[in-house]
Amino acid sequence: MKYIGIDYGTKRIGVAVSDDTGTVAFPLASIEADREALSKIVALMEEQKAEKIILGESRNFKGEPNDVMEDIEQFKKDIEELTKLPVTYQAEFMTTALATREGETKADKLDASAAALILQSYLDTIKNHGGPH
User: Of 21, 31, 43, 59, whose CB neighbour count within 10 A is largest?
Assistant: First the structure.
């Protein structure tokens, strides 16, 4: 199964893709968070032949939804409606900071790298717990 990972942000949306076996995540693109963002992401998903979307779930240090989570929930509804693909949340915590620590400094690549970290976390979880959820 091929997956798309999304790191939603109010300025940019990072997109990652898995290999065909759903084992390894790769940074794919960074999309400006504007009116065209959804259509650009849908086009990427169709181009990549993705079968499932993994969306970063944003929470604060206490594990509570943070300010951007309301936007993420609306984005999830919109992307599900447009693609008819299943969307699963994956906890994201400091993924942008982690991508920076791994040496990524360019903003456009940073968002895609953060999306890859979210997607890889999900892929590792399903691999360790026996198959897709």
Answer: 31
Give residue 19's pLDDT.
Answer: 96
Q: State residue 67's pLDDT score.
A: 79
Question: Which CATH superfamily, name and number, covers 3-128?
Answer: YqgF/RNase H-like domain (3.30.420.140)
Q: Which amino acid is located at 37 in the chain? A: A
Domains of the chain: which residue ranges?
A: 3-128
Predicted confidence (pLDDT) per residue in 35-63, tens digit: 999 999 999 999 999 999 999 988 766 76
